[in-house]
Automatic annotation (TrEMBL):
Keywords: Acetoin catabolism. Coiled coil: none annotated. One of its GO terms (biological process) is acetoin catabolic process. This is Acetoin utilization protein AcuC. The keyword Glycosyltransferase does not apply. Pfam families: Hist_deacetyl. It comes from Kibdelosporangium aridum. Pathway: Ketone degradation; acetoin degradation. Residues 22-315 form the Histone deacetylase domain.
C-alpha cells in the first residue's frame, strides 16, 4: 500500500484556453491525462472533481476590483487594464469561470490534504504563479498557488514551504507572501537578466518581517540537469530541514526542458522525473508527508509535457514509471492523427543521466558561484553555515 494520494481533474479544466496560437494550449493537459491513463498510472484512481472557487477565496490574494475586471473583460473587449487584453493575457470568453475552476482545483487539493483525507494531491492544471494581486501576467489570471497557501494557513498549517521549479521566476507567489514569515518560497529559474519576468534575483530575500523566507536561485541559460540538481541540493533540503513546513507546495512547470520554445534551460524529462522523486522524499522527511503539487509552464506540448507530467502524477501516486517504458501505440497514434508532422519520442526517457556531483564548497562551474551567493545571502538568516557543505 502506498500513501493515499489524490488527482484533481475534470475535462472542464481544458476551458482555460487562451486561444489561437497562444503557447498555453490546453492540449498539453489532455494529452497528459491520456498518456497517464494508457500507461495504467491512473488505474482505479477516482478523480477529485473541482468546482469554481468562490470569489471570497480568490480575494485572499486578489483585489475585488481586479476580479470584477476579469468578469467584465469579455464584454468590454479591450482596454480593460489589469494586464488583460495583452498578447500574453488575451481576453477569452468565460475567462473568470475558467480561471476560478483552476483555483477551485488547487483549493480542493489543499482541502483534502488539510482534512487528512489524503497526504498528497496533484493538479496539473494549476501553477499559475505569475498572477499578481491586481493584474494578470505571464498567461496567468488568478494565482491558484497563492490562494491555496493562504487557505492552508487559515486552516491549520503554521508554516508552508513553496518550491517553484518552473523556468520562470515564481514572482506572483513570492509577492503574495513576501513579508509573511510563515511562508518559505523557493524558486529555481533561468536568470532574470535573460528571461521574463525579470525578477528572482538572489537579493530578493523577503520583507522586513520575513528576511530569508524568499529564496531565489537564478541559473545561467543552458544549465543542464547535473548543474540544476547540484544547485537544488545545495540549497533546498537544508532550508526545509530548518523551516519544518506543515505542507510542501510545489509548482512543477516543465518549461525548463531543452526543447521548450520559450526559454533556454536545458533539462530533460529524466531530470524532471528525478526532481519529482526528490520533492516526494523531501515532503516525507520534512513536511509530514504532505505534498500539494501543481503543473505550471511547459510549451513543448507533444514531446515533453505529457511525458513529464505523467511522471509527476505517477510519483505522487507512488506508481513511478520506469524511464525505458515505451509510449503506448494508441497514444502515439492519437497524437499523430492530430499532429501528422510531429516526430514523437518512443519512450518515457530522454536517455539523460541524472547523476550529479554534490556541491563541495568550491567554485568550479558557473552554477557554483550562484550556489555560493544564494547560501551566503540566505543561510545565516536560518542559522546555517553558508560555507559548510554539510549544512
Ligand atoms: Zn514558466
Amino acid at each position: 500500500m502506498g500513501t493515499p494520494a489524490a488527482v484533481v481533474w475534470d475535462p472542464a479544466l481544458l476551458g482555460y484556453d487562451l486561444g489561437g496560437d497562444h503557447p498555453f494550449n490546453p492540449v498539453r493537459l489532455e494529452l497528459t491525462i491520456e498518456l497517464a491513463t494508457q500507461l495504467g498510472v491512473l488505474d482505479g484512481v477516482e478523480f477529485l472533481r473541482p468546482e469554481l472557487a468562490p470569489d471570497e477565496e480568490i480575494e485572499r490574494v486578489h483585489d475585488a476590483e481586479y476580479i470584477a475586471a476579469v468578469k467584465e473583460a469579455p464584454m468590454v473587449g479591450w482596454d480593460v487594464g489589469h494586464g488583460l487584453g495583452t498578447p500574453d493575457n488575451p481576453v477569452f470568453s468565460n475567462m473568470h469561470e475558467a480561471s476560478s475552476l483552476v483555483v477551485g482545483a488547487t483549493l480542493l487539493a489543499a482541502q483534502k490534504i488539510a482534512s487528512g483525507a489524503t497526504n498528497r494531491a496533484v493538479n496539473i492544471a494549476g501553477g499559475l504563479h505569475h498572477a499578481m494581486r491586481d493584474r494578470a501576467a505571464g498567461f496567468c489570471v488568478y494565482n491558484d498557488c497563492a490562494v491555496a497557501i493562504s487557505w492552508l494557513l487559515d486552516n491549520g498549517a503554521e508554516r508552508v514551504a513553496y518550491i517553484d521549479v518552473d523556468v520562470h521566476h515564481g514572482d506572483g507567489t513570492q509577492a503574495a507572501f513576501y513579508n509573511d514569515p510563515r511562508v518559505l518560497t523557493i524558486s529555481l529559474h533561468q536568470s532574470p537578466m535573460t528571461l521574463f519576468p525579470g525578477t528572482g534575483r538572489v537579493t530578493e530575500l523577503g520583507g522586513p518581517d520575513a528576511q530569508g523566507t524568499s529564496v531565489n536561485i537564478p541559473l545561467p541559460p543552458f544549465t543542464r540537469d547535473p548543474a540544476w540538481q547540484r544547485a537544488f541540493h545545495a540549497v533546498v533540503p537544508s532550508l526545509l530541514k530548518e523551516f519544518r513546513p506543515d505542507v510542501l507546495v510545489t509548482q512543477c512547470g516543465v518549461d525548463t526542458h531543452e526543447e521548450d520554445p520559450l526559454a533556454e534551460l536545458y533539462l530533460s524529462v529524466d531530470g524532471h522525473r528525478q526532481t519529482y522523486r526528490t520533492l516526494r522524499t523531501l515532503a516525507d522527511e520534512y513536511a509530514g508527508g504532505k505534498w500539494l503539487s501543481m503543473g505550471g509552464g511547459g510549451y513543448q506540448l507533444l514531446r515533453v509535457v505529457p511525458r513529464s507530467w505523467t511522471h509527476l502524477i505517477a510519483t505522487v501516486l507512488d506508481r513511478d514509471v520506469e524511464p525505458s517504458t515505451p509510449l503506448p501505440h494508441d497514444w502515439v497514434n492519437n497524437v499523430q492523427r492530430r499532429a501528422p508532422n510531429a516526430i514523437l519520442p518512443r519512450t518515457m526517457t530522454d536517455e539523460m543521466d541524472v547523476s550529479f556531483e554534490p556541491w563541495d564548497g568550491t567554485v568550479s562551474e558557473p552554477v557554483d558561484s550562484v550556489i555560493r551567493d544564494v547560501r551566503h545571502a540566505i543561510f545565516p538568516l536560518h542559522g546555517l553555515d553558508p560555507d559548510d557543505p554539510r549544512d
